[in-house]
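Entry 12.
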Amino acid sequence: MVSERIEKLINEQIAKEQFAAQYYLAMSAYFETLDLVGLAHYFRIQCKEELMHADKMFDYLNDVGGAVILQAIPAPEQNFTDVEDVFAKALAHEKEVTKSIVTIAKAAAEECDFATSSFLQWFINEQVEEEASASLYLNKIKMVKDNPSAMYLLDQELAQRVLTTDTGSQA
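Predicted 3D structure (tokens):
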């Protein structure tokens, strides 16, 4: 049985993951308006990943006897200035998500909730990957932003991204 404190934190995280999905969908829509379909595709995949994260937490909370209490999701920002702005905001957002997951992990450790601690390790590892990826692409954007040919190639690279599930299979 999960404590009320952990249940509350996980419910808040479910909402944060759902918000992240909406935020990335807004980023995808922005790139669609610029005809950067590879960048738009990248963020559509990000959106789907965030929904999978929310689902994973939803299922975990049910598995440990907690109550899932869905929360309102605020509208994400939808005004971006350029490609670099979007990736900078994506990286900043991933850092916020990491902080939030670490908060839950600390609470679980304080309560000696080993099941939740174990469960959250996957998310902690995922956040390391998410921050590294966002940072990598932000740096690439900075390198190519004034070169349309290079931006075209980066757009083509990101168009190749596929969604992978928890088991590593492609969807």
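Annotation: The CA atoms of residues 1 and 65 lie 5 Å apart. The mean pLDDT is 94.
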